[in-house]
Amino acid sequence: MSEISSPAGCASKIERNSLAAGVIWNLGALAFLAAAGILLNLAIGRFYGPEVLGTFNIAFAIFIFLSQVAVFGLQLSALHAASTADTREEELVRIVYGGLVACLGIAIAVSLVSILAIPFIAKLFPRVPDLPTAWLIAAPGLVPFALNKYLLGIVNGLQLMRAFAIVQGARFALMLLALVAMALLGAPGEYLAAILTISETILLLCLGAFVWRIVPFRAVGRMARSAADHVRFGVRVMPAGIVTELNSRVDVLILGALMNDRMAGIYTVAALVYEAALQAVVVIRNNISPGLARDLRDDHLQHILGFSRRLGLAMLALASLGGIVGYALFPWFLRIAFPAPDFLLAQEPLLWLLLALPFAAGPLSYSLILSQAGCPGWQSVAMAIMLAANIALNFLLIAAFGIAGAGMAMGLSAILGGLTIIVLARLILGVRLFF
Length: 435
Description:
Blueprint: E1 2-3, E2 15-16, H1 19-48, H2 50-71, H3 74-84, H4 89-116, H5 118-124, H6 131-138, H7 142-157, H8 161-184, H9 194-214, H10 223-258, H11 261-297, H12 301-337, H13 347-364, H14 369-372, H15 376-401, H16 403-429
Antiparallel strand pairs: 1-2
Main location: membrane
Transmembrane segments: 23-44, 56-74, 95-122, 134-152, 164-185, 191-215, 311-330, 350-369, 381-403, 409-429
Keywords: Cell membrane, Membrane, Transmembrane, Transmembrane helix
């Protein structure tokens, strides 16, 4: 780690992690996060059944989607601002707390509106009868979740990747602990969505204290201007955040709407393995994004190209090897973790998901390049193209192939999304990636 020297008091507390250290820490967090996520779904699936697992994951998908509305793109504004700012105390205070106040107000409004929209949600998912109750319990958690997303953008931008990794891992650990507590109390299945609210609230207390220690709040000028700058950036990039999260959950949502909670629950088991693999891509993306912003600012285009070629080859090899091993071990995993015969159907979509991953992994590592270049509107365009393809493919392929079609659609849309990033980076930024 290298300390950033500055006369300011708060800046002296900031020690940015190197890329290698950040990747190591975040890969460790990924392993922990994957294990906790599997245990979470395993516990729900085994002790409550595929219907409750499906209801929970549909509620979780809605939660993740609406959280992007609640955070309003401010997490990407925070990432960009913290990545490119100097470390003067007053500037950091404005960046951190100006956006935080804006995020709080927007998140509260979104949470309240989503509760009022429960009758509409029930009509969208008529075959998931417990969803209204689950959402009523989960909706308040949008507020702490949005604030956590924003604060993690600050932590990521300051390249404090060890702290970033710990917080990411703690999220699912807290969810798992909350689930254990609710199960011991004999909570009905539809109440399990409360673990989202409980875990995010606890996480906010810890993350907020950490950021406060790094950048203590004090009254400074132009705070309102900083908040307005965040909102202006956020409103342009918010569609990208919304469609990115919806893109990662649209398969579960469409399965729940077109089929039922049982099929959504079965598919979730395949999605677990795919999402665990995809989190490795997210780890790389989060670690390269601060340096990428500085390379773009300083016009180091050849460095970006050369690094992307090396990274792309490494991601292709690792994703291919991981896919082969993961699919080979999946039947064994099912026999031990999800012995009910229904869950064997999860093998079909997993095959298509893992076939697509090697071709999407490298390009998706650069999925924030447009935002980090200060082009949040084009970031939204790129993500919207991916989402449109995903929705169209899911409706088409689920209707034709059922649960396997969801895996085909998600895999194909990931490949198309990666190609979109490469093309737009070349056309809009003049940046070559991979070739």
